[in-house]
Amino acid sequence: MKRPVLLLFCLVWSGLVTGPSLASESVTTTAAPLIFGVFPRRGTAVTTTAFEPIARYLSAQLARPVVLETSRDWGSFWANVERGRYDLVHFNQYHYVVAHARYGYQAILQNEEFGSSQMSSLLLVRKDSNLNQIIDLKGKTIAFGGDRTDLINYIGVVALLKAQGLNIGDYQEIFAKNPANAVFSTYYQKTEAAGTEDGVMALNVVTAKIAVDQLKTLARGEALAHLPWAVKGGMAQALSKQLQAALLALNDSQPELLQGAHLTGIRVATDSDFDAHRRLIAAALGEQY
Fold this sequence. Notes:
By secondary structure, this protein is of the alpha/beta class. Helix content is 42%, strand content 19%. It is built from 10 helices and 13 strands. The strands form 3 sheets. A 6-stranded mixed sheet has the order 2-1-3-12-4-13, sandwiched between helices. The protein has a 5-stranded mixed sheet with strand order 8-7-9-6-10. The chain has a two-stranded antiparallel sheet with strand order 5-11. Helix 5 (151-163) links the parallel strand 7 (141-144) and strand 8. Helix 2 crosses helix 8 (237-253). The radius of gyration is 24 Å and the shape is globular.
């Protein structure tokens, strides 16, 4: 009659002994949240829908909260970069190069889109125009698919123009809301040329609206490393490696999460992969990083 009581006592005592041990194993769940910043390449709602599943996945993999943040504009996004708010950040290449030089952000990954981990600047015109070489754009209007900090859609295109003798001021600049709108502007003859990126011509939003075969490439820039993912300067190497490994695992374990973020994959990157971008920035803008 006493043995069940003794057994119960032993089980309760065992639980008291092992309880603290189990709690210590899961202590990472109380770690401070990691802030995952994604630059406003697309609208806030689209960005949140695209990257929130990845943030939840990282939370599960790291056993700590990962909080997604984006911004409605570049100014507020960059202000957060400057004050070091983001632990993991998905950048425009120009902003990465500047953030690395000034604040120590380190590239760990890069996008793969449409099966390529590289992207190029494009200068497009209509086939039925009389524009056959870059010099023909003197005095003409060019729609750029990004602002003056967009490496592919602006800086790379400016470098193409400059290499053929056209400097800023030799043509008129307007800035479209996004790369697709720059293409539309030229297609519908509101501008003579579009400064954009090579992947834009494969976007459904473009092919569904215009006959892309009515446009021609006047010039194409060199192939450059795609959009980077970087970690905050001073992050522990173990955590940086953990983030890198978890995101790389998505290629095989949950590719649907990448597809939801408009990616066909994600690849390893290091800071040296962006040296070509630094040379391009120097050539186009005269800025040294």
